[in-house]
């Protein structure tokens, strides 16, 4: 704390998945300095460039601070918005929702949920209640341009799409990283503050790091070995490695080995994936594949980790499944130093009992007939669901913290679709490329104006920790949970004047009643009114959080466990509480019907056969393959309006290998036209040997040049939208995930 600071507060950064602790110094109700919290139990003072910009985000003049209602369009066709009060905004929502339902029915109203919602407590506690209240319409989210293959694999293998193993990087001897660049992302589906430092610690204690990526990323530069793979072929490589493990006699060790079904079938299923077949398909030498398999087999503790580059491909779910198969075969699943299952403090207390079979396709999308997965449709289907006439055509969309025009496939048609809606309600802090189509925009408070707890990321953490961040600056405006509750009450017919606290109370009471009726719960059989009267919290989401913490695996059971966890206890520990390293959780975690792991519970044998057939087709197309890339100062599309994060050299460039540039008459800095089956963009060329020949790279989340947006800094650094090139016709069939990597493109001088 400086001598001049009026107060110092400690807060978890909400801008990426790393959950770093921040120390924020305040003078005269203004942030004067942000640095890493040295006492944070998890991040120990680490901070990336994004964390220090919470002040700029809080003060951004373009951030919306009052609702906007669209009142028409100007002569150029740009939307004209009027700033209104909350009562007026809710009245307009009520009128528009009633009109659409009366004319077209409930099925005409859908939802899109964006990535930032995962970083917000109120969204985590209340979004599903709005979804339920709307009823009947299609739901889409950023999950199907991101991690849905992980959910599907976990659903089939472990009985729950939320049971996602992470690399136990702090104890591993061998870290193999595919399709990820933690030096830029700080980790994804793996919460690990100072991921770069953790990678270097593996090497410092004598371990090795292997990176498999078409680009020589910053992570690859640090690695002991970088293998430049052909985009989209990770499944072939992993299948060959799994086959080699079987040939070497590896079929798992320890307690997990006794839980596995399907081992008798896996050898035949993997038979086509020889090293001789894998090498030309992946672009990796046979000797390197054999050596990597041997290294995984020989390591005492090995963690093989794949992320967006292994998910956003045609065989994303199969690739994810093979990652878990390798962990099982090598004895590294649920084992220290391998891949393990975190246990968040708010995890419910449940005994070992069988669950239901994991299912997809309980219903299908109206136009393309694609199966539902985890209650939602592939976002690649969203434009068709809006633009194609017929019963069930979407006429109104509610979006929560999303920008699908930039972040989802076929961006131009996505833009056309949103423009065609009868009505759209956006819960968002910016007037961006998607929300410019909204009829009503409802802005929640800024990050420093609400409390924070990571519902999602404590369940993906490489240590079991818990941190709570109280509000820094008071704001009377509705929070996310207030907005979502008000919208839910409108959808349920209670009108725009309904009190959101009524829904907050119902959510808390419903949660506690379910615990009272659960025999394993620490409050089983207790009186509901007594428990409700004991719940702590200043807001609806805080009250839900307190109820979840106190009935969770580390909770105080509302007094039955004196030293247990509660919201009050987290408040008393502003630097967080460390519950220790990850511990084995199998078989208790399993919710499969038999309480076992069936390798072929899903259609993985059929998908292996399809992969073997597709390998024969690869190589016939001589077009370049487009991949994305991440930058340390970016997080998708929503952090480009802060000058400190976009200054410097333009980052939205097409990286191209010197040989490919020469073949096409392109030089560094020249403009290139990149075209795919569905669209074309023009971007400046960056000639570099950091990408392998035959591969080009364009970053995701740019394209801030559309009329009607109110993000002045982003517009000055517009870049181009790489998703104009993403083909919605090609998705991972098991999860519905879009294919963002390995897109065939033509590149020529503009």
Explain what you see.
The chain has 750 residues and is α/β, with parallel strands linked by helices. Among the domains are: 1-59, ADC-like domains (N-terminal domain of TfIIb, Single Sheet), CATH 2.20.25; 148-347 and 595-609, 3-Layer(aba) Sandwich (Dimethylsulfoxide Reductase, domain 2), CATH 3.40.228; 499-575, no CATH class; 621-749, Barwin-like endoglucanases (Beta Barrel). The strands form 7 sheets. It has a 7-stranded mixed beta sheet, covered by helices on one side. Strands 21-25-22-24-23-26 form a 6-stranded mixed barrel. Strands 11-10-9-13 form a 4-stranded parallel beta sheet, with helices on both faces. Helix 8 (234-247) packs across helix 12 (286-298).
Produce the secondary structure layout:
Elements: E1 7-12, E2 21-27, E3 30-36, H1 54-59, E4 68-73, E5 79-83, H2 86-104, E6 109-113, H3 121-134, E7 139-141, H4 148-158, E8 166-167, E9 174-178, H5 182-185, H6 195-204, E10 208-212, H7 218-222, E11 225-227, H8 234-247, H9 254-257, E12 260-261, H10 263-270, H11 275-282, H12 286-298, E13 302-306, H13 308-311, H14 316-329, E14 339-340, H15 382-387, E15 396-400, H16 404-407, H17 411-419, E16 423-427, E17 440-442, E18 463-466, H18 480-491, H19 500-516, H20 528-534, H21 540-550, H22 567-571, E19 577-581, E20 597-598, H23 604-615, E21 624-627, H24 643-646, E22 654-656, H25 658-663, E23 671-675, E24 680-687, E25 695-697, H26 712-716, E26 743-749
Parallel strand pairs: 6-7, 6-15, 9-10, 9-13, 10-11, 12-20, 15-16, 16-17, 21-25, 22-24
Antiparallel strand pairs: 1-2, 2-3, 4-5, 4-17, 8-14, 18-19, 21-26, 22-25, 23-24, 23-26
Helix pairs in contact: 2-18, 3-18, 3-21, 4-14, 8-11, 8-12, 8-14, 18-19, 19-21
């Amino acid at each position: 704390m400086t001598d001049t600071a009026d107060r110092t507060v400690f807060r978890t950064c909400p801008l990426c998945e790393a959950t770093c602790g921040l120390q924020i110094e305040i003078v005269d109700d203004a942030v004067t300095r942000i640095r890493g919290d040295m006492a944070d139990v998890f991040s120990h003072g680490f901070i990336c460039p994004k964390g220090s910009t919470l002040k700029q985000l809080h003060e951004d003049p373009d951030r919306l601070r009052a609702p906007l209602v669209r009142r028409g369009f100007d002569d150029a066709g740009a939307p004209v918005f009027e700033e209104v009060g909350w009562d007026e905004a809710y009245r307009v929502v009520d009128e528009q929702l009633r009109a659409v339902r009366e004319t077209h029915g409930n099925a005409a109203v859908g939802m899109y949920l964006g990535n930032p919602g995962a970083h917000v407590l109120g969204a985590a506690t209340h979004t599903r209640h709005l979804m339920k209240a709307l009823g009947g319409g299609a739901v889409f989210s950023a999950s199907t341009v991101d991690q849905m293959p992980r959910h599907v694999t976990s659903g089939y293998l472990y009985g729950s799409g939320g049971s996602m193993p992470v690399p136990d990087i702090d104890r591993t001897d061998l870290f193999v990283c595919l399709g990820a660049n933690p030096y830029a992302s700080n980790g994804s589906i793996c919460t690990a503050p100072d991921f770069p430092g953790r990678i270097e610690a593996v090497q410092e204690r004598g371990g090795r790091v292997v990176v498999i990526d078409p680009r020589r990323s910053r992570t690859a530069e640090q690695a002991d070995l970088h293998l430049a793979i052909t985009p989209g072929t990770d499944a072939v490589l992993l299948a060959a490695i799994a086959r080699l493990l079987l040939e070497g006699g590896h079929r798992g060790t320890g307690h997990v080995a006794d839980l596995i079904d399907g081992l008798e079938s896996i050898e035949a299923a993997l038979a086509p994936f020889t090293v001789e077949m894998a090498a030309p398909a992946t672009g990796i030498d046979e000797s390197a594949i054999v050596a990597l398999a041997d290294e995984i087999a020989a390591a005492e503790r090995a963690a093989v980790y794949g992320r967006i580059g292994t998910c956003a491909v045609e065989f994303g779910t199969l690739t994810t499944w093979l990652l878990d198969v390798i962990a099982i075969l090598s004895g590294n699943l649920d084992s220290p130093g391998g891949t393990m299952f975190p246990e968040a403090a708010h995890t419910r207390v449940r005994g070992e009992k069988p669950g239901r079979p994991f299912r997809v396709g309980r219903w299908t999308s109206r136009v393309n007939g694609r199966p539902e997965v985890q209650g939602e449709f592939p976002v690649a289907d969203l434009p068709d669901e809006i633009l194609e006439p017929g019963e069930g055509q979407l006429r109104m969309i509610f979006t929560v913290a999303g920008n699908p025009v930039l972040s989802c496939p076929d961006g131009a048609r996505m833009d056309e679709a949103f423009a065609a809606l009868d009505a759209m309600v956006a819960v968002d802090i910016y007037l961006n490329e998607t929300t410019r189509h909204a009829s009503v925009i409802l802005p929640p408070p800024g990050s420093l104006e609400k409390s924070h707890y990571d519902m999602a990321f404590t369940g993906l953490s490489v240590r079991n920790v818990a941190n709570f961040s109280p509000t820094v600056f008071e704001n009377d405006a509705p929070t996310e949970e207030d907005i979502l509750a008000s919208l839910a009450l409108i959808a349920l017919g209670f009108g725009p004047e309904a009190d959101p606290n009524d829904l907050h109370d119902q959510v808390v009471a419903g949660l506690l009643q379910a615990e009272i009726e659960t025999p394993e719960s620490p409050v089983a059989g207790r009186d509901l009114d007594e428990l409700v009267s004991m719940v702590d919290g200043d807001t609806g989401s805080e009250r839900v959080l307190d109820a979840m913490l106190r009935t969770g695996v580390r909770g105080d059971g509302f007094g039955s466990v004196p030293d247990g966890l509660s919201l009050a206890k987290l408040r008393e520990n502003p630097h967080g509480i460390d519950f220790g390293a990850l511990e084995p959780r199998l078989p208790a975690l399993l919710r499969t019907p038999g309480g076992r792991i069936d390798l072929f519970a899903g259609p993985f044998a059929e998908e292996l056969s399809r992969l073997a057939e597709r390998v024969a087709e690869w190589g016939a197309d001589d077009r370049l393959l487009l991949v994305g890339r991440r930058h340390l100062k970016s997080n998708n599309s929503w952090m480009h309006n802060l000058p400190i994060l976009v200054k410097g050299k333009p980052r939205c460039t097409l990286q191209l290998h010197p040989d490919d540039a020469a073949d096409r008459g392109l030089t560094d800095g020249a403009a290139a036209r990149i075209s795919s089956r569905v669209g074309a963009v023009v971007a400046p060329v960056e000639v570099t040997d950091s990408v392998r020949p035959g591969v080009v790279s364009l970053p995701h989340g740019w394209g801030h040049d559309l009329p009607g947006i109110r993000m002045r800094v982003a517009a000055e650094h517009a870049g181009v939208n790489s998703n104009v090139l993403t083909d919605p016709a090609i998705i991972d069939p098991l999860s519905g995930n879009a294919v963002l990597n390995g897109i065939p493109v033509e590149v020529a001088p503009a």
